[in-house]
Amino acid sequence: MTFTKVDKEAFVTGHKGSTPWEILLIISTTPIGLLFFQAVTNEYNDFIRRDWQLIVWEAVSFEIPMILCQSNLLYPYGVSYLLVQLVIGFRGRLLSHGSKCSRHVSTHPQQNVNKATLTIYRASVMFLTFIAILAVDFHVFPRRFVKTETQGYSLMDVGAASFVFAAGLVSARSRGRTQSKRKTMSRMVPLLIMGLVRLLTHKGLDYQEHVSEYGVHWNFFFTLAMLSPTSCLFPGPSLVVPVALLTFYQASLSFGMQEWVLEAPRTCQTANRLCSLFVANREGILGCIGYGALYLVSEWIGNAFVWRTEKPKNRMLLVAVLGACWFVLTAVLQIPVSRRTTNAPFVIWILLINILQLFAIEWAAGSECRVPLLFEAVNDNGLVMFVVANLLTGLINLSIDTLSVANEWALSILILYIHVVGGMAYGLKVVSRAIQTSQLSNEKDA
Q1: DSSP characters over 29-86
Q2: SS3 for 104?
Q3: Which segments of the chain have a pLDDT < 50?
Q4: Cα angle 382, 384, 388; round to 5
Q5: Mapping DSSP to helix (H, G, I), strand (E, B) and coil, where does residue 153 land?
Q6: What is d(CA 147, CA 160) in angstroms, rounded to the nearest whole number?
């Protein structure tokens, strides 16, 4: 049976999401996998002599469980896999005191533990997203993990917003550096170009679209591009500015705008083109307010809690405050989490889940803070690999009828795909390293 564009769009539309606890379970594949990875590389240090051997262990530690847990094999196989990793990881942690680091793993000194933790965190967000953007088109990907239509919690909602959170953590202002407005604004250009290319190719190829995600013409590249003006328009790092911005935005949503965003038609009653363009893309345009607030808070969190020489003692207080705000908004005030409007409960939920993930990775990494090769490679070429993953996803969707693929074949395609993405990232890292070595050699000769 051949499925049409309309069938594929219906396949990713109208879903209500999962539970917060299930999403926490799925993203725990990173800290649990890291604990397991370190235990294995410590114990078999003398037998791991080549990069390809280490990459195999990385696949077993991270990529395989990520795919299992983003499929209908989560129960019981994904959970069982994580439990085995957890047991082996804890055993390795107990026996690893005083052991030497694996020679094949990038080991950062103690003063750079935060940087290494961020590398692992950012790369894990990208790997989880790479898998989801292709897996969503197969039946093997549970529909409760697909982006929610109006409200609720879903895995794919977390993935997109986590990119914004990660961008704020590593911004120049977050690290206490000053940067000219011209340089900051120049970062918009490649993102705007990629957004336009994505828009034109989707329309030109008549590719399936989820209109209620960002709108008729808007896409996530445009949203990312809007983060640069956000950091130029508002002072920071500051907590007051994004809280005030988010409070004003949530008040507007609560007093009627939420209903308008969800239910209004895609065209204006007048013939005004600018009005029609805004209405057609209202989710993407208005969502920039929520994402902007998320980005500004992330800058403040990075400056206050991450890029510090010593660990702040009040980090768990931050988690408690965010948890309390989330509870009050969702349980007391009965304001549902809505990715489609990027409202205050959604922003706070994203902050909470990402901070918990970041702290869990830091604990799992330990004082040695080892960074897997593929994680380092993907982190170094994040934007490039995000584009590559999107291109491969489009190519696979145009080449095969994903809705007709059996689950076992879908899993095989996902495993092959994620290893191609990882292999390309590693290849870019090898080339970059060779160029740097050549430049240093030339400088010495000169």
Answers
A1: HHHHHHHHHHHHHHHTGGG--SHHHHHHHHIIIIIHHHHHHTSTTIIIIIHHHHHHHH
A2: coil
A3: 98-105, 108-111
A4: 115
A5: strand
A6: 10
At 201, the amino acid letter reads T
Helix, coil or strand: residue 179: coil
Q: Are the beta carbons of 362 and 173 closer than 8 angstroms? A: no
What is the structure's pLDDT at 445? Answer: 61
CB contact at 8 A, 145 and 155 = yes
- Strand runs (DSSP E) across 12-150, as ranges? 106-107
Least Cα distance to 184 among 197, 194, 196, 171 occurs for 171
Single-letter residue type at 211:
V
Q: What is the pLDDT of residue 235?
A: 82
Kindly report the backbone phi and psi dihedral angles of residue 102, in degrees, each rounded to the nearest multiple of 5, phi listed first: -65, 135
Residue 242: exposed, middle, or buried by beta-carbon count in 10 A (0-12, 13-18, 19+)? Answer: buried
Structure tokens at 203: 């329309």
- The conformation of residue 45, written as its DSSP 8-state character, comes to G
Q: Which two tokens stand for residue 164?
A: 């914004």
Question: Pick from 162, 52, 30, 54: which is nearest to 106 by CA?
Answer: 54
Cβ(180)–Cβ(150) under 8 Å?
no
Peptide bond between residue 237 and the one before it cis (omega within 30 degrees of 0): yes
Whether 371 and 116 have beta carbons less than 8 Å apart is answered as: yes
Burial of 139 (0-12, 13-18, 19+ CB in 10 A): middle
Residue 338: CB partners within 8 Å, gap ≥ 6?
148, 150, 151, 258, 345, 346
Write down the H helix ranges in 370-406.
373-380, 382-399
Greatest Cα pair distance, the chain, in angstroms, is 73
Q: How far apart are the first and last CA of the chain?
A: 66
* Residue 240 tokens, joined: 């007051």
Check if the beta carbon of residue 257 is closer than 8 Å to that of residue 195. Answer: no
Query: What is d(CA 143, CA 18) in angstroms, rounded to the nearest whole number?
Result: 9
Residue with tokens 């896409």: 219
Asked if residue 76 has a cis previous peptide bond (ω within 30° of 0), the answer is yes
User: How much is the pLDDT for 108?
Assistant: 47
Q: What pTM was computed for the model?
A: 0.91
Residue 422 confidence (pLDDT): 94
Rg (CA), the chain: 22
Cα 197 to Cα 123, 186, 193, 391, distances in angstroms: 25, 18, 6, 11
Q: What secondary structure does DSSP assign to 136-190, as a single string?
A: TTSTTS-GGGSPPSSSSB-HHHHHHHHHHHHHHHTSTTTTT----HHHHHHTHHH
334: part of which helix (H) or strand (E)?
none
- Specify the length of the chain in residues: 446
